Amino acid sequence: MAPDSRPLDRHASDHAVYGISVAAELMNLAPQTLRVYEARGLLEPSRTAGGTRRYSDDDLGRIQRIGELLAGGLNLAGIKLVLEMEIENRRLHSELGDARRRLERYEGS
């Protein structure tokens, strides 16, 4: 079989590459803090076949957002709601953009 000729995307933000200790060190947190975030449903790291947690740059961004919300005075339950609303807001904005593009195509025909 020929090797894949596509260039490697070493910067894919959703590619889980960091172990828990590296992710914790990068975010200046204890690994246990990341486990708590996961247990509370704030974070869902990828897992290897052996069950080892792996974090992506997207996960690190989410951890940073959690820290910002904590600094703003929210508790973990409130943070979970805010994160869920932010995801829903992005989804709705995407749908609105799609609907506007469809309308523009319809009006242009």
Automatic annotation (TrEMBL):
UniProt protein name: MerR family transcriptional regulator
Pfam entry (one): MerR_1
Keyword terms of this UniProt record: DNA-binding
Domain HTH merR-type stretches: 17-85
Listed Gene3D superfamilies: 1.10.1660.10
InterPro entries hit by this protein: DNA-bd_dom_put_sf (IPR009061), MerR-type_HTH_dom (IPR000551), MerR_fam (IPR047057)
Signal peptide: none
Entries under PROSITE patterns matching the protein: HTH_MERR_2 (PS50937)
